[in-house]
Amino acid sequence: MRSIIKNLTVFIAIFLIGSCESYLDITPKDRLSEAQYYQTEQDAIEVVTSCYDPLKHPGGFNINFFFMFTTFSDRAVHEAAAVNQFTFDASYSRVLEIYTYMSKGIFRCNLAFEKIPPIEMDEGLKEELLAQVHFLRGLYNFYMTTIYNEPPLIDYLVKDVDQQFENSSREEFKRSIISDMKIAAEGLPAAWDDANLGRATRGAALAMIGKTYLYFQQWDSAKIYLQQVKDMADNDNVYGLLMPKGTDSLDYCYAYQANFSAIDLTTPSGNTYDSENNLESIFEIQFHYGGWQVWEGGWQADGSLTDLYFGPEGYKNLAPTAEYRDQFEETPDHPAGLKDDPRRYVMFFEPGDTIYYIDQTVDPIPWEENLNMNGAISEGFGWAKYFNPAHQSNNGPTNLRLIRYADVLLMLAEADFMSNGESSSQLGLDCINAVRQRAGLEGIETVTREAIMHERDIELGFEWFRFFDLVRWSMLEDPWVDIEEMIPYFQKGKNEYLPIPLYEINLARETLKQNPGW
Length: 518
Fold this sequence. Notes:
Layout: H1 2-24, H2 41-52, H3 58-62, H4 64-72, E1 76-78, H5 81-84, H6 93-115, H7 123-148, H8 170-187, H9 202-215, H10 219-236, H11 249-257, E2 265-266, E3 272-273, E4 281-285, H12 306-310, E5 318-320, H13 322-325, H14 342-347, E6 348-349, E7 354-355, E8 365-366, H15 369-372, E9 382-383, E10 400-404, H16 405-419, H17 426-438, H18 449-459, H19 466-474, H20 483-486, H21 502-507
Antiparallel strand pairs: 1-5, 2-3, 4-10, 6-9, 7-8
Helix pairs in contact: 2-6, 2-7, 6-7, 7-8, 7-9, 8-9, 9-10, 9-16, 10-16, 16-17, 16-18
């Protein structure tokens, strides 16, 4: 028996040696080499789609932006004391995760800029694809400098893994962002067909130019570009606020709530309010399945995880403060008879409220403080915005809205106010009062700092803009807010920005300098 086994072993060894070359020459069927890729029009389309992908990852906009920047503000509390009290450091995992996914987006955009131009394809489509990449790179860079102050600005495809990088100034970032967004605005359509909903548009690029100038305190320039978005709404009906179609209380709530829902909302009287990619949407992260929006697969990569972390059936580890609830106006003369600003009813879950579900075969249930709130948080309220209708599984379908027309109107009102030397104008009044009219509130008579701050606070709650607003208002020559008084544990000169991740500092071998205070 041993001789048979020995002879058989020798035979197999000889066979394998003789056949080795043919086995090694087999081309893998499950992947393409780089030499085989970047050849066709379809390859170019897929490369651009990959540039959108980091937007939806939990490490970036999907979870961490809500978790970090909502918690940092004065309007929310998280069960994690390290984030509430700014006691984390440059080694904190979420600091690195956000940096990683913004960098990943920038890398993919730079890859697209190198690989797409040589492809033989329809030149009009090529220009359109590259315009999308310019928008996305500008978007990632906007948040890189807004969050990390002066990290490296990388505008080319890095091929040397050992290359060391130095800090880039915020002025360099601004120039790069504006350049990318202007190219995007020139090459992008005002709107897409149904098969391509969610791709970047001309209006999204113009809005980001205006926002960038606003954050850099260049009020006149911000006003010019934000006005162009308003012109697209006024003259071409590309954008607009979702307005109540009736006088029922649900009409006023749904006109706002539809902007944060995965399904269209219909009142008992038959008034329907479109949800995703609607008239008010300027740019949102797509969590639909199928079509061009298919993202890379893998764990936690197929949908929104905000329900799982912050919704009434998830971890519920981020809650609004009672003080925030008190900022919503009482409305004794509301056209629908509501006692408070309708945005309050969309923003919060409170005892007596009902949780409805995206899957309408699931029966609604009452929201209960002891069941639908995290036991470590005692504020007595839960977030309803984005979570009513709620989703029961990990990967939710609700798109995340990054730019809404209401935000553009309020930024335009602020830019106009500042460019006029903090003086009220009809343009600013019209912008703010349009947002208030949607809620059924009386218009203001004069634009003031307080009016701008209040309306942004109420309209944009739980969209993680509040922290960034407070930071930039605190950095004005004549500050609008005392941020250390408003946000406990905040340290001026340090907490305006996150630290550059320690991992990146170490990789750079001391050529990359840490942000002040960290």
